Amino acid sequence: VFPSPGNMDRHHYEMFTKFGDDGFLIHLDNARGFGRHSHDEISILSPLSQCCMIKRKTLLHLELLAQADYKLSDVMRESLLEDRLTPVLTEPHLLALDRRLQIILRTVERCIEVHGEQSVIAPDPGQANLTN
């Protein structure tokens, strides 16, 4: 079994013991949670494509981030400029976010085509279902 090329994020720890018993733990994160920009790991969409359910508010947020004025890559780019470790993501990784968002939205569209909007888009807690 080979690891999926899309899930490259690995965490582990090392013990720094140069000073003997006064050693300390170092947590290492290789920061590959976004995977390779050129590879879209479709298997992570299995819960969405199999259950075909998404909260209305979540879908509305995703649809907003797909619009030209609020592109996910632009929002992330601007947000990450505040990080002291900038650049956190390369430009190809930022553009991959937009591409992957389109894949998610197409998955939701296919679910709606098969199961209907009322079955796929779940009302948010506390929101009355006005369509019934």
Automatic annotation (TrEMBL):
GO terms for biological process: enamel mineralization. The active site is at 9. Residues 6-121 form the FAM20 C-terminal domain. InterPro entries: FAM20 (IPR024869), FAM20_C (IPR009581). GO terms for molecular function: ATP binding; metal ion binding; protein serine/threonine kinase activator activity. Belongs to the FAM20 family. This is FAM20A golgi associated secretory pathway pseudokinase. It comes from Microcebus murinus (Gray mouse lemur). The gene is FAM20A.
